[in-house]
């Protein structure tokens, strides 16, 4: 569904060095290197969440972590602690651009890790890019990062050869591991030199600007079915409904599971490397309707939201078919794309969008929570 204008959103995301003020305090985003934390780092982060935040860690749509409810006076101490844990960059500018998706299922020391190192090395040499732009290294055993937000995508073709694809393009440029960094810099410079900055993202830029032929040579392999909770050779995949990781629950899980590491995944999933979850409040089996429901913090935790979201999404999750998105406002932070059923907060009530995003034209407006129970 279309017809409405996409809302104006901030051109940057909260980071560790540059947190964002929300209704419950500062939001401090932590981008773990390689989307991985040791068990010791995870336990320490849980402690920091309880000491400086509200005791709940957010697992974001880009597979990062957020501490919420941090007082401004506590931010310097929290930053020092995160640095001591090796979870942040010393340079705030690099920190702001280190938006790198990697598959949780990967070989230690394999191609994915080597490409990650190349992307890290390229960050200081990139032209001035919009801060929301990011990278995906979709070179694991299955192609699994296609739905993740990224602008520069390292992928494989059907023969296993390496490609670099501009997000929004169907085809890509063949590269090798030896030429990968140079190719990434070339594509970033092309984006900047052709005026991509105002568009903000690669896919939007490509709606008005054509790529050079060299970047449209080869198709990537087909994306696999999305990962779901359950056992995998590397350990156990678990789900966090609405991306909420209660620090005390996560501490208990890490202490009892025997996991060596925690790897962050898209779709509010995480992998316990070499871990067995046992009894836990996190989702351990596929098919749980809460994993198809999306909701931002909502009011009163976000100043732009005019409605509460979490309880309504939890109540409706098992009653609607397909994906459900309850958004506190038209930005759609929890799911910035279409869902089967989208509820958008506006002036204390909800607009209903079928098969669309929060900024699309609704089919019903001004619904109360009681109206939702009768309509859905």
List the keywords.
single chain, 376 residues, alpha+beta, Sulfite Reductase Hemoprotein, domain 2, Sulfite Reductase Hemoprotein, domain 1, 3 domains, five-stranded antiparallel beta sheet, 9 helices, 20 strands, 23% strand, disordered N terminus
What gyration radius follows from the Cα positions, in whole Å?
20 Å
Oligomer: single chain
Q: How many angstroms does the end-to-end distance come to? A: 18 Å
Number of helices, where a helix is a run of at least 4 consecutive DSSP H or I residues: 9
Strand order of the largest sheet: 1-2-5-4-13
Beta strand %: 15-25%
Q: And the CATH topology of the largest domain?
A: Sulfite Reductase Hemoprotein, domain 2
Class of the largest domain in CATH?
Alpha Beta
Q: So what's the overall shape? A: globular
What is the N-to-C succession of helices and strands?
EEEHEEHHEHEEEEHHEEEHEEEHEEEEH
As residue ranges, the low-confidence spans are: 1-11
Task: Characterize this entry briefly.
The chain is of the alpha+beta class.
What does this structure look like?
- By secondary structure, the chain is α+β, with helices and mostly antiparallel strands.
- It has three domains: 1-90 and 228-283, Alpha-Beta Complex (Sulfite Reductase Hemoprotein, domain 2); 106-215; 289-375, Sulfite Reductase Hemoprotein, domain 1, CATH 3.30.413.
- The protein is built from nine helices and 20 strands.
- The chain has helices at residues 39-52, 75-84, 92-97, 111-122, 180-193, 202-205, 247-257, 310-316, 369-375, and strands at 20-22, 25-30, 36-38, 56-59, 65-70, 100-101, 135-137, 152-156, 162-166, 173-174, 230-232, 235-239, 244-246, 261-264, 269-273, 293-295, 324-327, 339-346, 349-356, 364-367.
- The strands form four sheets. A five-stranded antiparallel β-sheet has the order 1-2-5-4-13.
- Strand 19 (349-356) and strand 20 form a beta hairpin.
- The protein starts with 19 loop residues before the first strand and ends with a helix.
- Residues 1-11 have low confidence and may be disordered.
């Amino acid at each position: 569904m279309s017809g409405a204008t996409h809302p104006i959103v901030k051109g940057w995301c909260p980071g560790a060095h540059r947190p964002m003020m929300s209704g419950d305090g500062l939001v401090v985003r932590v981008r773990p290197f390689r989307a991985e934390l040791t068990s010791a780092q995870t336990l320490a982060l849980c402690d920091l969440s309880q000491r400086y935040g509200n005791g709940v860690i957010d697992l974001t749509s880009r597979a990062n972590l957020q501490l919420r409810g941090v007082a401004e006076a506590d931010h310097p101490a929290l930053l020092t602690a995160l640095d001591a844990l090796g979870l942040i960059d010393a340079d705030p500018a690099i920190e702001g651009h280190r938006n790198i998706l990697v598959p949780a299922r990967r070989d230690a020391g394999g191609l994915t890790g080597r490409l990650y190192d190349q992307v890290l090395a390229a960050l200081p040499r990139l032209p001035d890019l919009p801060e929301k732009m990011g990278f995906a290294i979709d070179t694991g055993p299955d192609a699994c990062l296609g739905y993740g937000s990224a602008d520069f995508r390292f992928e494989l073709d059907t023969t296993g050869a390496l490609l670099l694809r501009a997000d929004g393009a169907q085809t890509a440029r063949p590269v090798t591991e030896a030429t990968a960094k140079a190719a990434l810099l070339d594509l970033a410079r092309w984006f900047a030199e052709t005026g991509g900055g105002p568009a903000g993202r690669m896919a939007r830029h490509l709606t008005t600007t054509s790529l050079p032929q060299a970047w449209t040579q080869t198709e990537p392999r087909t994306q696999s079915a999305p990962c779901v909770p359950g056992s995998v050779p590397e350990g156990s995949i678990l789900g966090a409904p609405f991306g909420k990781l209660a620090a005390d629950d996560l501490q208990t899980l890490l202490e009892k599971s025997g996991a060596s590491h925690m790897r962050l995944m898209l779709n509010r999933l995480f992998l316990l490397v070499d871990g067995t979850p046992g009894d836990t409040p996190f989702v351990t089996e596929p098919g749980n309707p809460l994993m198809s429901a999306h909701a931002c913090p909502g009011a009163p935790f976000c100043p732009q939201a005019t409605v509460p979201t979490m309880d309504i999404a939890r109540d409706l999750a098992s009653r609607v078919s397909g994906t459900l998105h309850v958004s506190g406002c038209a930005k759609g932070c929890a799911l910035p794309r279409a869902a089967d059923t989208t509820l958008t907060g506006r002036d204390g009530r909800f607009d209903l969008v079928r098969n669309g995003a929060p900024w699309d034209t609704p089919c019903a407006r001004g619904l109360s929570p009681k109206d939702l129970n009768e309509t859905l």
